[in-house]
Design a protein that fits this description.
Layout lengths: L9 H39 L7 H18 L16
Helix pairs in contact: 1-2
Length: 89
């Protein structure tokens, strides 16, 4: 029988699980916020003819934040997104 050296720490896995659940909940909240912003931008664009320029930088950083969440939850990175690190610029 082959001896397998298990170097994983159960507490670290449990910690990551807690963070993953937190970030998945944050992702759901982001989808609600995005829906509100998308409808607002659509109405604003219908009325004024152009999107609201003040909202665009926020939605761009929110898209980057969502990308960071997906990378963390899918084990592509160990870097935790905000609030454990800085908000993306």
């Amino acid at each position: 029988m082959e001896d397998v050296n298990n170097t994983e720490h159960p507490k670290a896995n449990l910690t990551r699980l807690v963070y993953m659940i937190l970030y998945l909940i944050i992702g759901k909240v982001i989808s609600i916020i995005l829906t509100v912003i998308a409808v607002g931008q659509l109405i604003y664009t219908w009325v004024s003819g152009t999107p609201n320029e003040k909202v665009l930088p926020f939605t761009k950083s929110m898209a980057e934040y969502t990308k960071q969440i997906v990378l963390y939850v899918s084990f592509n990175t160990d870097t935790k997104p905000w609030p454990s690190s800085d908000w993306p610029k």
